[in-house]
Amino acid sequence: MSFADTFNADFSSIVLNTSDFAEIRTVKYDGEIYADIPVVLTRPKQTARQTKDDDHMEGVHVVTAVLHCKKSDLGGNIPEQKQMFYISDGKAVGRTYYRKYRIAASSCRFDMIRLELEAYDE
Questions:
Q1: Which CATH number, 1.10.10, 3.30.1380, 2.40.10, 1.10.1760, labels domain 3-121?
Q2: Across the chain, what does the average pLDDT equal?
Q3: Which of 41, 59, 64, 72 is deepest in the core (most CB within 10 A)?
Q4: pTM score above 0.85
């Protein structure tokens, strides 16, 4: 068994374990829906947005989050920087609500994808 195989098995059984760290979410990317996949999503953080002198959008903040999931759970796709990525709210009852993010950074090592996400919020 190679190092990559060992890493993927350990990561999936430990980090992407829904009993410990991961949550089941549905994501949309590039027109495709990937239903009920295990993801680790850092809780979105809201920070003040840097403004310029001619910026009149007061009260708008940047929301950032980091998502980890398996490349194979996204059909082998690696989401690209500056594209839109939608994550379902795992707590919605009776309907699916998606939070819209822009991919600020994307990387993939072995079979694990790491996305740095950002959105604007009031």
A1: 2.40.10
A2: 82
A3: 41
A4: no
